[in-house]
Amino acid sequence: MRALSLIMAVVAVACAGCGGASGTEDAAGADRPVGPVTMVVPFAAGGGSDIAGRAVADGLVSVTPGLNISVDNREGGQGAVGYSYLLGKAGSPQYLLATETSLLSLPASVDVAFSHRSFTPIFKVGEDFTLLVARPDSPITSCADAVEQARHRRVLAAISGAMGPDAVVFSQMRATTGADIDTVPYEGGGESMAAVLGGQVELASLNPSEVIGQLRAGELKALCVFADQRYTYPELADIPTSVEQGVGVVFAQFRGVIAPGELNPQAREFWVQAARRFADSPAYREYVASEFLQARPAFGEQFGAYLAATQGPVEQVVSR
């Protein structure tokens, strides 16, 4: 309850005065962006959301002559500050936000002023399965071992956001195994990484793109991937799945891009078409491969339908 109260307090401060559509400086109601565009990242620099936001911003620029996008990290409230900021930009085509599963899990668990329907869905970039990692000297040797040890002693795990995708994963683990691994929320994958490397926590839930360098260097070891099939990428193919180890937790978070609500239909179409061009480009394929994503793009209303279909399962897990 204390974590929820802190999130609500931070959001209230950040959103003061941003309840309605923004002023003319944000081009509210315009049929396309004019001048610099801002990609909001609702988490700290260095994590998976930050990597995704910067890659998509660069990709959209590469396929749209004259477009200029800068990245603005607005972390806080476990992602809610960034979403609340975008909420105040209603109607403006000058803003995008690098979104992921916290768009669904936050409204399901915290009293925030937004849901996924508050925004304009533009582009689902792909899907990302989480790895459970530990330092090489950790006595925990597998995902199943983490479950077993958590039944007999306190095990701490770092997660990105108290109500984000990593929290969903550990909630599923508690529901399916009864093992209660204590989670410590951080503002992004970079902070979670530092916590496990520094020994403040024993485990961390991180995306492959966030942790591949440390795995290659031997600074961390992967205990499992929370999936029902192994990754086919050579660097990850030897990591066993949670299902293989008898832990029935499978969860893919999405990565995508949303725009403010109440967009002019022509502005929405501008961004959807830009996203389609990016998805057809070598830059998209390079990004997906470099971040070890599952390439499952969806655009506009199709992405909105995906969000609506995914909302229920996420709410069921978070509300347990």
TrEMBL record:
Q: Does the keyword Disulfide bond apply?
A: no
Q: Where is the secretion signal located? A: 1-16
- PROSITE patterns in UniProt: PROKAR_LIPOPROTEIN
Keywords, ordered alphabetically: Signal
User: Where are the annotated coiled coils located?
Assistant: none
Q: Does the keyword 4Fe-4S apply?
A: no
Q: Which Pfam families match?
A: TctC
- Give the family from UniProt: Belongs to the UPF0065 (bug) family.
This protein's name: Tripartite tricarboxylate transporter substrate binding protein
